[in-house]
Design goal:
The protein is α+β, with helices and mostly antiparallel strands. Helix content is 33%, strand content 27%. The strands form two sheets. Strands 1, 2, 3, 4, 5, 6, 8, 9, 10, 11, 12 and 15 form a twelve-stranded antiparallel β-sheet that branches. The chain has a three-stranded antiparallel β-sheet with strand order 7-13-14, with helices on one face.
Length: 354
């Protein structure tokens, strides 16, 4: 089985029943602290959007009030950022948790890194309607407007991306396969570790480092599937035969990789979002994943990749008692209704001072 390192990129959660006053207070604090980078208002999707940014580059996207929700005094609030950045916005997380009736997982991007060039990495969708696209050297399955939908996939040269965006040089080829994981139903964050993603149903991924081991004709057909125009001429029958040939021993098992990495990657993050523990690392490197899980690599190599990381041990994720939390929240909100008119009146002032 091919070696791969698994990490989580963007991580999205939703807070239910967040009062408007709590949202306005968040805006006011962001303006006062200088963290309010950008604010927008839309007439579709989420109406209010804030983009917070700290001086070290850590960011947090905030989306409030989905227009599909009925008019009321509280609405859904969504957060989106990289896992390591959540730890730097702990005050925001604590405030939202105290004012919300629940926290649900929405989606995340799961990255699988393999030490080889893109020419050796092949991804074939099981759904023939997912067409291959290419833009600036990156291969995509899924259209641009489907970027946040389940199963959207992109394959790109991670070595080049590190060099261009971070000026970081690595001495080996590195290709990243990045898949969006977005369950059909919201998963309570307290239960998330019980539900690792299963992405083998969406794609067959394979790494062929020695193309000479494949029959010549099959190798030609496989290479055709990696090119946008030529892939259009490959029949469903040939596509099926290529997948059968690559299923063993070239396949990357997404399900097994994600299952092994899921808890180590997300355990600490879920604990902080749920208020069940304090961050164990006071200041995180901005590009560091929550943890590094290396599949099928010697233990000593795995250890060397985690130098400087903290061993946080294990703790229990408690189940959310939504009913009790909602009752307590309603009692809290009673005292907030008197502030509603005042916060609405100050809303234009907050925006004009940004």
């Amino acid at each position: 089985m091919m070696k791969a390192k698994v990490s989580i990129d963007k991580f999205v959660v939703e807070y239910t029943d967040v009062p408007r006053s709590a949202y306005y207070a968040l805006v006011g604090k962001a303006v006062k602290s200088g963290e309010l980078f950008k604010q927008k208002f839309y007439h579709e999707g989420y109406g209010y959007q804030l983009h917070l940014r700290k001086g070290n580059g850590a960011y947090l996207h905030v989306f409030y009030r989905n227009w599909s929700e009925p008019k009321g005094v509280s609405y859904t609030l969504r957060l989106e950022t990289r896992p390591e950045y959540y730890f730097q916005f702990k005050e925001v997380l604590d405030t939202l948790r105290r004012n919300a009736s629940g926290i649900n997982f929405v989606s995340c991007d799961i990255a699988y890194d393999v030490r080889t060039s893109m020419d050796n990495v092949m991804v074939i969708p099981h759904d023939g309607r997912r067409k291959l696209r290419e833009y600036k050297g990156t291969r995509y399955f899924g259209k641009k407007h489907q970027r946040k939908t389940n199963g959207h996939c992109k394959i790109y040269n991670k070595r080049l991306e590190l060099l261009e965006n971070q000026n970081k040089v690595i001495d080996h080829e590195l290709t990243r396969i990045e898949n969006v994981h977005k369950p059909e139903k919201r998963i309570p964050l307290a239960e998330l570790l019980q539900y690792p993603p299963e992405q083998n149903d969406d794609y067959l991924a394979a790494v062929i480092t020695d193309w000479g081991t494949l029959p010549k004709k099959r190798a030609e057909q496989a290479r055709m599937l990696m090119k946008v125009e030529e892939s259009k001429n490959v029949s469903p029958y040939i596509r099926k035969k290529v997948k059968e040939t690559l299923a063993h021993p070239y396949q990357i098992d997404f399900n097994e990789l994600a299952r092994e990495a899921w808890e180590p990657l997300l355990e600490e993050l879920c604990g902080v979002l749920l208020g069940q523990q304090e961050p164990q690392v006071q200041e995180r490197q901005l590009q560091m994943a929550v943890t590094n899980t290396v599949y099928d690599e010697p233990q000593e190599e795995n250890d060397s990749k985690n130098v400087g990381c903290v061993d946080i041990g294990k703790y229990r994720i408690l189940r959310d008692n939504t009913r009790v939390r909602k009752l307590l929240n309603q009692q809290r909100m009673t005292g907030l209704f008197g502030l509603e008119k005042r916060t609405i009146d100050t809303w234009p002032i907050l925006f004009s001072s940004a």
